[in-house]
Design goal:
The protein is an alpha/beta fold. 34% of the residues lie in helices and 26% in strands. It has a 9-stranded mixed sheet with strand order 4-1-2-9-8-3-7-6-5, sandwiched between helices. Helix 3 crosses helix 4 (112-124) and helix 4 (112-124) packs across helix 5. It binds adenosine-5'-diphosphate and magnesium ion (MG).
């Protein structure tokens, strides 16, 4: 399988007044084409930093990142990434369609065909009829749906999601996870998602990469062989429970103060 994302011995340090702080120790992993991979780890372990290095927003201190065989900066310039963050950051003065069309405008690709595609995406994410609404008229979940539509409007090859539903309540979050999988399955994109939720990681992914506490290292890579499409009923199966246990074990293995 061709590789969508490849990290080779990637390290990231940040300068401190009293020396340097190693945020990501040594990350080596890959994401295949059309694969859904989740990075899971405790707060502050370097998950967002890894994602930002993949997106070409942060340069690694050491090691190499390749996206579709190219440097991330190149892929950025070709607009091959769709990025969804925890906070949807929609422009308040633009309506929802205007927000979703923003990447098209910036890329100089706004025309009748692409606007129609944006409208199609809004209905795909369940926001049909809200094209003219302002962000403040939408709930948190709806805003995040709009952010997903915006991330998909340039048909990215790589979808990067940084705790996209972290600010939502548990029920909305589970619904959004189902929606995300439904939407993703209709694209050709590889997905790399960051979360600190073990259940979310197991539910969404083809593979879960477990990161250690500071400094962030890759502790385990766990294949999730649950069939797709994933359903809520799977959350109650022994297989699902076994996977969440595997992830939990990997997360706490060798950690000081681990719960026994
Ligand atoms: P996570 O997403 O897993 O919560 P982050 O990748 O955001 O973790 O951060 C990992 C560590 O690196 C944190 O301790 C954070 O304070 C530090 N860090 C992240 N970005 C910077 C930066 N630009 N300058 C200094 N330290 C940073
Ligand atoms: Mg983060």
């Amino acid at each position: 399988m061709a590789l969508a994302i490849e990290l080779q011995e990637v390290q990231k340090s940040f300068p401190l007044e009293s020396g340097t702080f190693v945020a990501v120790q040594e990350a080596t992993f890959a994401v295949g084409e059309k694969e859904f991979v989740t990075l899971v780890g405790p707060s502050g372990c370097g998950k967002s930093t890894v994602l930002r290095m993949v997106a070409g927003l942060v340069e690694p201190t050491r090691g190499e990142v390749r996206v579709l065989g190219e440097p991330p900066a190149y892929c950025r310039s070709k607009r091959l990434f769709g990025f969804v963050a925890q906070d949807p950051v929609l422009l308040p003065w633009r309506n929802i369609l205007g927000n979703v069309c923003l990447p098209l405008e910036v890329a100089g690709r706004l025309d009748k065909i692409t606007v129609n595609k944006a409208k199609g995406l809004l209905s795909l994410v369940g926001l049909e009829g809200f094209e003219g609404a302002r962000p403040r008229q939408l709930s948190g979940g709806m805003k995040q749906r709009a952010a997903i539509a915006r991330a998909l409007v340039l048909e990215p090859s790589i979808l990067l999601l940084d705790e996209p539903f972290g600010a939502l309540d548990e029920i909305t979050r589970q619904k959004m996870n189902l929606e995300l999988l439904r939407i993703w399955s209709q694209t050709e994109a590889a997905a790399l998602l960051v979360t600190h939720s073990i259940a979310e990681a197991a539910f969404l992914s083809d593979r879960v990469i477990v990161m250690s506490n500071r400094p962030g290292r890759i502790k385990a890579s766990i294949e999730i062989e649950l069939p797709r499409p994933r359903t809520v009923d799977m959350l109650r199966t022994k297989e699902f429970f076994d996977y969440t246990n595997l992830i939990t074990d990997a997360l706490f293995r060798g950690e000081e103060g681990a719960v026994q």
